[in-house]
Structures are given as C-alpha cells and as structure tokens.
Amino acid sequence: MAEFNEVSGEYVVIKALENGVTIIGLTRGRDTKFHHSEKLDKGEVMIAQFTQHTSAIKIRGRAEIMSKHGTVRTDE
C-alpha cells in the first residue's frame, strides 16, 4: 500500500485555450529540474498529478487549470 500512497497526489486538469500551450513538470529534491514537458493544442485537455517526482507544474500559454481548489486561467 505504501507504493500507492507515494503516487496518489492531487490531480489538476489543464485545458489549452490556444495552440502550443506548454506544460512542464518540475522535480522534487534539493535541485528543481525539468523532467517532462507536453504541448497541447486548443481544446486539448491533460490530466496531471503531483507525485513523489513532481512537485510543481509550469504552464506557458493560455490555459484553464482546474483542481479541487477551483479554476484558474492564465493571463491573456
């Protein structure tokens, strides 16, 4: 059961409001590094999760981000 708890972090839903939205996962630990990136086109949706490896998610471009805390849009 310990393995499940390590990756059962919070989810966020990211919806691209324009073509070319970039989503970048950042690592945990002493040094924060990029570990994964994705590009979304307008209307595409990605579900991302905070895990033992991912401590932050950076989003470039116009997008709507939905989580249990509410909905946020990037500036236009």
Automatic annotation (TrEMBL):
Organism: Desulfoscipio geothermicus DSM 3669
Domain Tryptophan RNA-binding attenuator protein: 8-75
GO MF entries: RNA binding
Classification via Gene3D superfamilies: TRAP-like (2.60.40.50)
Assembly mode: Oligomer of 11 identical subunits arranged in doughnut-like structure.
Biological process according to GO: DNA-templated transcription termination; regulation of DNA-templated transcription
Family stated for the protein in its record: Belongs to the MtrB family.
UniProt cross-references to InterPro entries, sorted A to Z: MtrB (IPR000824), Trp_RNA-bd_attenuator-like_dom (IPR016031), Trp_RNA-bd_attenuator_dom (IPR023558)
Name of this chain's protein: Transcription attenuation protein MtrB
Superkingdom field: Bacteria
Tagged with keyword Transcription regulation: yes
Keywords for the protein's UniProt record, in alphabetical order: RNA-binding, Transcription, Transcription regulation
